[in-house]
Task: structure prediction
Amino acid sequence: MTQALIVIDVQNDFCPGGALAVPAGDEIVPGINALMDSAQAVILTQDWHPRDHSSFASQHPGAAPFGMTQMPYGPQVLWPDHCVQGSQGAAFHADLNVDRADMIIRKGFRREIDSYSAFFENDRETPTGLEGYLRTRGISKLLLVGLATDFCVNFTALDAARLGFSVELRLDLCRAIDLDGSLDQALAGMKAAKIRLSGV
Result:
């Protein structure tokens, strides 16, 4: 056991018709399911926000979705309410092979801090526990897919590389929000971190 497939946030709210829909986000599901068939280990991540999460624009009077604010841990995009705990929007896409998952990591459940990465909250210090899980299973290589390329996938990939994992990202099995050039910026950062970008 050396490699794990990390499937990031393939949830209803990030798919067409969802509260924070990523264009064509649902199109990657069949390809991800096919990868699961040969994966040694499968970990799913799930955005899991309380209804009053501080990253929601609705919690900041006068603020509009996709604006910016300053949090104690740094700049924060203000999002539409999404992936609220227990809601249909927070559920995995119905066609995703959830039964194949060895582990599900829920993130963003602390009201006061957002969490893009599967490894850390947005303060870049508070761990989710994923690193310890992977290391105790002897996993050193990660294959990343999911939503969205320029946010949760990007942050997960950069943290994984920083922690010493070998990281590959299948771009054909990811989709991006691309907020004010965020996709190009994310791709440049991942290339600089020596993350392998495949499926182009």
User: Anything to note?
Assistant: The longest strand covers residues 166-175.
